[in-house]
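INTERNAL AUDIT FORM
Audit reference: QA-55
Scope: verify that the stored structure record matches its stored sequence.
Auditor: D.O.
Record contents follow.
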Amino acid sequence: MGRSNPPTSQKYWFDLALFYCSKRETSRSRLKAYFTRKIREYRVPEENIPETLVWIENVLIECERLKIIDHERYAGILHREYQRRGKGKRYITQKFHERGLEEEVEKLSFDQDEELDRAIALAMKNKERSTIKKLTDPYQIRTKLLQKLVSSGFDLSTAKKAIDVALKSS
């Protein structure tokens, strides 16, 4: 579903960036990927692509200058959201890399006690699930809980401590 006329100005790309960023926080790399997708969708002629890429680069620079794209703000939002959802350090770090926020990973603070608390809460929640309640073998229960915690981004030692706490409280 392409447009009949490809975009012919930098203002068009800036307006497109404003539209995209008005709906969600984003990073420079994700906005650039969005523009790349739009170049294909609009079927921009091959001879116009270099000029379009210059416009896009200028728009990205302007968006950063105007704080429309703010990696620090975006990283803070993501970090809080992933912590609220009970995700561990490894998961959060991986998601930051996927979203083009590599430099923001070093600025993150991960409190070990807080990480353990989130892991315990997740273990307690999963312990109550019907699939785990059906299991009778303690080894299988521990294995299932461990799989869930590790896949949620908690390191092995934190996951094991959380499982011990969760199983002792039953």
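Auditor finding: record pair retrieved intact. The CA atoms of residues 88 and 115 lie 7 Å apart.
Action required: none
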